[in-house]
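User: Round two. Same drill as before: sequence, then structure, for each protein.

Assistant: Same drill it is. First protein:
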Amino acid sequence: MSPRMRGWIRIGFAGPGAVIVALVVMAGMALWLPGGAAGIDNLVLPLVLVPLIWAALFFHACLDSRLGRIALVAIGLFVVHAGLVANKFLDTKSHGQPAAAGEARR
């Protein structure tokens, strides 16, 4: 692969790739973080951490010398958290209701 192509791939992972992965990680974090005393910590903490997640992905894409490692980290985070979100939306135990609505009635 040419150095010019590697540069464009790196820019893709540092720019729009970092933003997309950070937003998907934010959505997935709400599913695995504990609720806390007020029950909203799992919603607030991902919103507060999005800039930090974005910055970590951006600087990793800019500073890491191995393009494969950049892709592995970004795509791995994306796949894991997108899978969590998809699993939540495709939850068949709720019989047409969102799973969170069924849990809130308990």
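Second protein:
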Amino acid sequence: MNIRPSADGTGTPVRAEPGVCWLAPAAMAGILAHARAAERVSPRPAFWVLSDLRVDLRPDLALPEPLPAFDAMLVAGNVGPGLSASLTWLARALDGRQGRRPVCVVPGNVEYRSGTPMAEALARGRELAADLGLVLLSDDAFRFGPAHGDGTVVVGATLWTDWQLGASSGRPPARVAARTAWEEAGRIELRRGRPLTPLDTLAMHARSRAFIEDALTSAAIGSLGLPPGPNACVDTALPGDAAVVVTCHAPTPRSLPVDWEGWHADPWLPASLASEAAAAMAAWGAPSLWVHGNVPAAADHRVAKTRVVANPRTGGRDHAMAAHAFDPTLVVTA
């Protein structure tokens, strides 16, 4: 979803127009070799970060009153079973109190536990999110901020695991064990009569990983004031814009606590929650912030150029650990 800012800079969806021109790769490389990103002149935006609310397991949750001071809300998945149900709950809990501030949501694995095939659930979710005034991001990007630039491009994806965590030449990928142990395989339908498998998530991870990397590069090019290419993943970035990423699954094993009991369980368990995307956080165009969920406890650390933050309400197997760390009013800046 490519969205240009509205005239008042609030991020209201407006159909994107094609790029006005395209520079040859050699010319682009020469420009980028000498270009320096313009410094952000406006204050850094504040992001209200939540994930793994699991209102089906603990329905007593009420969003704070008043809401914390924020510029955009980032919900990193796993609100509850069913994507439409999760979006509806979130809209009702906010009750319009967010005003014109964007609420960006990525689907988590729990959102697809609905009995509805994934593609169908996502299509319905996109329509419902638009009706509810929410921004649903699944291999999508959304821009908000001033119409002249110095805004923020939010890149969002579920980022299913690739099962490579802990794999080596002498140790097979975790997906081999997960084929018989991973609980999502029996809970999620890829299509009618066809359950999701670890092999499927490997393919989805590859697509989302490529989208995130390409979107970050496109956003960085736009932040320099250069025109987007004809196949740019993001064609809305303006001079001075910064990028943030929101995913459900963790982009680094560093977000898994060292004292987590899951390290001593089957090798597939840590690999089901996290993959390794450190290269994207060290590359040119790296995001200033990466928000995720789907981990046993809160996380806040840096990987290369990127601040990585998670604020889960419940982490399933380590419910007590996550509940103790959850902050319903957590607001961060990059």
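The helical segments are 25-34, 83-94, 118-132, 175-181, 198-223, 268-273, 278-282, 319-325.

User: Perfect.
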